[in-house]
Write a structure and sequence with these properties.
mainly alpha, elongated
Length: 92
């Protein structure tokens, strides 16, 4: 039973994460936090933005996907906690 639950949680995290990343990647590039977060991540990874100007879009997309998966994982975790709390409350 745990394998089914873990598999469902994994699939839900991937589905929500990739839907969220598609939404964010379709936002206009003029969306102020997007270029700033890409530049911040590149500086944090010690990647020179001038030398790797061609890689900015790729690195930006990877950052968007990773951030979306983290947000989706937190959402699935919170839903699991809520469901488990409700199940234990109904048993009492």
């Amino acid at each position: 039973m745990k394998i089914v639950r873990y598999g469902t949680n994994g699939l839900a995290t991937l589905a929500i994460g990739f839907l969220l990343s598609r939404y964010v990647s379709n936002l206009p590039y003029d969306f102020p936090p997007l270029p700033a977060s890409i530049a911040f991540a590149m500086r944090a990874l010690h990647i020179d933005t001038v030398k790797n100007a061609d890689d900015i879009e790729t690195i930006g997309l990877v950052i968007i996907i990773v951030a979306s998966l983290i947000v989706a994982a937190l959402l699935v975790w919170a839903l699991n906690r809520l469901l488990r709390h409700r199940q234990t409350a109904h048993r009492s």
